[in-house]
Amino acid sequence: MISEPGPRRGLPVRRLVQLYTGLTLYGVSMGLMLRAELGLEPWSVLNQGISRHTGLSIGTVTIVSGALILLLWIPLRQRPGLGTVSNVVILGLVMDATLAWVPELHSLGARIPLLAGAVLLNGAATGLYISADFGPGPRDGLMTGLHRRTGRPVRLVRTCIEVTVLAAGFALGGSVGVGTVVYALAIGPLAQFFLRRFAIPGAPAKPSPVVARGEPSPERAILPE
Question: Could you say which of 4, 15, 164, 191 would form a disulfide bridge with 126 (CB–CB 3.0 to 4.6 Å)?
């Protein structure tokens, strides 16, 4: 059963628009990062590595891996929301569509601006998606679920997951590079800025663990991936 977490029930049209606009832009940003060929964020590194070994498109792998991760929610007693299910389906479809539409670039002078634009777009998409408050993505739910079950800090759990994922993806041939570092350094400040920019009027702001200074509650630890 899909539940809609969070107390915000008002402005459903705006929230739905923010949810699906954010997820669509997130998928586009993932595709653009891949086209820049300068390194990917950790989960895309893993998905790209799996794609190279299976022959499936990276978008298809993203969908399948998201669905498999949801199975891990069961023992962690996590409850999916509309945003969770939409995340699983939309990101992969949009990513493949972006790769089909945007040609490969060979000039470094074109790839560097493309990477910068993709990271910026990812930050904006993060702000839109989280502000909609329709539930975390499957990978973020895994993080918050492990946080609850282990009692370990959110930042530590997230770091351990992403380092493991990055190492596995690199071993499978996924792309790790300057783009991976740029994303890691930039996504926190960008997410913080856009979360404030797209906050729904009259609703309290919900910080994300990538931008919060302290330890937020697990319900607030959401980022789409």
Answer: 191
